[in-house]
Amino acid sequence: LQQNGRPASYTLALKVMPKGQVMGLHMEPELPPVLYWDWPRPVAPSGYDFATAARVDAIRDRKSISYDSRPLPLQLMEWSSFDLFVVADPEALQHPPTVEAMRQFMLRGGRLWIMLDQIPADLIQPLLSPRQSLQEVERIKFDRFTIETLPPQTNLTKNDVQVELEREVAMVRVLQNGGTVRQQIDGWPAALVMDVGYGQLLLTMLESHAWIEPRLAQRSEEPAYQAEFTVRSWGSNLAIESNAPFPALPVSAEVDYPLQRIGNPVVPRGWVATALLGFLGLLVITGVWLALTKHLTWIGWIAPLLAGVSSLSLLVAASYVRHDMPESVSRLQLISIADDGSFAALREQAAVYLDRLSAMELESSVDGVAHTSAAITSGVQRFTSDDFEQWRIGNEAWPPGSWRYTAQYAVPTDNLVVRGSLSQSGLQLSLPASLSAPLEDPLLSFVEGDPLLCRATTSGVEVDDSQTVGHERWIAGAILSAEQQRRLEIYQQFFQPDEDLRRPERRLYGWMPNWPTSEWNRELELPGAALVGLPVLLERPTVGSEIFIPHGLLQLTHSLDRTNITSAYNERTGRWRDEMLNGTTAQLDFLLPNEVVPFDARSITLELDIHAPQREVTIAARGPSGPIELARLNNPSLPWKATITDPAVLQLAEDGRLEMQITVGQRTGHSEEELGSSYVTWQAEHFHASLRGSVRAASSLSSNP
Hints:
Elements: E1 2-3, E2 6-7, E3 22-26, H1 47-57, E4 64-66, H2 76-79, E5 82-87, H3 96-107, E6 111-115, E7 133-149, H4 158-161, E8 162-177, E9 180-185, E10 188-196, E11 199-204, H5 208-211, E12 212-214, E13 229-231, H6 236-243, H7 257-262, H8 269-292, H9 299-323, E14 328-337, E15 343-354, E16 358-364, E17 368-372, E18 382-385, E19 391-398, E20 401-412, E21 418-422, E22 427-430, E23 440-445, E24 452-453, E25 455-456, E26 461-463, H10 482-494, E27 507-512, E28 518-520, E29 528-538, E30 546-549, E31 555-558, E32 569-570, E33 575-576, E34 584-591, E35 599-611, E36 616-623, E37 626-634, E38 640-644, H11 647-650, E39 657-664, H12 672-677, E40 683-695
Parallel strand pairs: 3-4, 3-5, 5-6, 6-11, 14-29, 21-29
Antiparallel strand pairs: 1-2, 7-8, 7-9, 9-10, 10-11, 12-13, 14-15, 15-20, 16-19, 16-28, 17-20, 18-19, 21-22, 22-26, 23-24, 23-27, 25-26, 27-29, 30-40, 31-34, 32-33, 34-39, 35-38, 35-40, 36-37, 36-39
């Protein structure tokens, strides 16, 4: 800048919110203003008051962006600013582009909160996954009700859950499938949560006025953490869950894969083998010649000389290879396909290698955004958005050497859904015809905590329980290539147990070449690969046909009786606790896929891998008349496996829930003094069940599932 002909500089500091920590709003229209002579002024809390009260109760900044009087955002870059988006106006769901943007937002890990008391239930149908449904029954009004929280909150008194209001509030009664109810009134959901991709869809059916009450004291002196209302005690779990920050997605931290694919300058194996064989050959020939000439003592001088010549040749080769390393950009893409196969959320980690200071641009025609490493300080970077999906990042002085950048994209797809059918041998998966390349090293993650290795065939993918993932085994095959070793490391990080992570279920994962998303306007080599997660649609088998259900298709969960939940097993991760000291009784249920219920079981194969020295372990099935003991193990150290054909046990799986009980006793065989002076822990690796039988007609179910 110049001022009066002299150079001048100005500095402007702008305070911005951290990425992904802002609440977006599209609320119901405001009530007409009250005339100034009306007194006392009526208090009519709105959905905005409910949302901000929940935000402040969760100790979150209430700063928000309102879209009440302007179009909702469409681009991925704008939606990435939100961790919660609240909708209480039907107009927001009447435009297909905005609905599609909301679906992409949830698939990437965002949370969408819709207040159904203000919105017709039919408008949210496009947001639901194929296995989810919600049907509006009626709309009622009342001024008193009794609320029930799920799971029950022990700190609530009878007065807390019995609510009497000064005016009637509205509630919409719905029938739903695929969601988890948080509050209910007379058996009808008042609030529920549905998992969509990595994110959540939160639905409240009860009017905002019933959820909140005036706040008596503020928790903070900062206006951003203050609100006029607070959520009632029975809704505190909803307030916390609606504003809980989502954990990072799998493989969000930087991994070495992109740099490994660029590679370090390494001398080819053939060159090394030639140098070593040449050294050994010359050494043998020289030794034979010296032995014949009776000067074998000279070998002590000649051998080191030959070794030095061989080493020097390898150094020259390494220097040549180092100068011959090509410029390249290596990409690791993590692709998650929506449940209906209509679009994909793509995360990309990339590494660039340049041999000199360069001017170039990263150009894209796909909705997305890219961020370069903070270590790049050369030149001036410019992000330019030309159109809705046209953007580029340029710099006149990209640095030489290796540096990294990350990117996100929202990519439309064409029916990328895997069809699954059960047969006598297991599960057969048919890959979509629109998939651009074959799927390599496939892995099925149908339920949390029990992925299965798959076999790729010419007709698709076959799945049975003969190859279970465990420890270092994530890819089928005895000898793995260098690329498969890199993929194995990514699999391990991707499926690392995380209690808070909502990883999509029913997914077939596999590797394929990179998807076209963006490119540099300069000729670069393009190593890399994409890890794709395809949704699996399981078809209902023909009634009466024999099928085999591998254990990776059955979800192991806690019993419906939540009063005695064991800490030995975590159903969120599908993992057992690493070590346990005290004995326990674990009541766990195997849930069959809905597509095979009701089920006529002919045999049940159970496998328990548990190491419990100095203890007795009992395995039983829980029937209507009490436990049915199946096995009693003393000091188990090897996996136990048995096939059950008892009709009394087989009948228990009819309704799709096989109730089991594992009892691990206290230490035995030692005196009390010895037991108190030493610690011997026990640990379970897995508990699996696979079934063989046939599907029965739905009308033959003897009781409600």
